[in-house]
Amino acid sequence: MPSLNAPVQGGCLCGGVRYEITRPFERAGYCHCSRCRKLTGGLAGLNGRVAPEGFRLLAGHERLGSYTPAQSANPVVFCRTCGSNLGRGRWPDGPVIGVRLGTLDGDPGIRPQYHIFVASRASWEELPEDGLPRYSERKPQR
To answer: Is residue 86 one of the residues assigned to a domain?
Structure first.
């Protein structure tokens, strides 16, 4: 589990952007919306959310690019050199830091907890019977 004493690092494919997580992730889950599919090139995005104070950009600030999809409040963050999709939010100091868990070098200390936007998953995608809760749209706020 990420902590100040045992951070988990991550970065982009070319290595120009490097970051570390110094607090436990608040949540993690699969998003099956069409935007995440197009952003990742996969069936779903596997995303984790960490408090801004638990995120530290180590290198590559000048390589970060962002794109805000229509009808979205959080921009997508990517490396302008290699194109790696790194997460969502306003890196490195926005109020929400979303991280694509596939960009981590080690164990995030959290396992996926849910599937969201399953109503808009690819028509040919079969969700695995993994026991995780499924939500047709966003996960309800508690």
So the answer is: yes
Residue 10 CA to residue 78 CA, distance in Å, equals 13
Residue 4 is predicted with a pLDDT of: 83
Q: 58 vs 140, which has greater pLDDT?
A: 58
pTM above 0.85, yes or no: yes
Domain that holds residue 45: 8-120
Average pLDDT over residues 98-127: 94
DSSP assignment string, 79-136: ETTT--EEEEESTTTSS-EEEEGGGBSS--S-----EE-GGGS-TT---------B-S
CATH of the domain at 69: 2.170.150.70
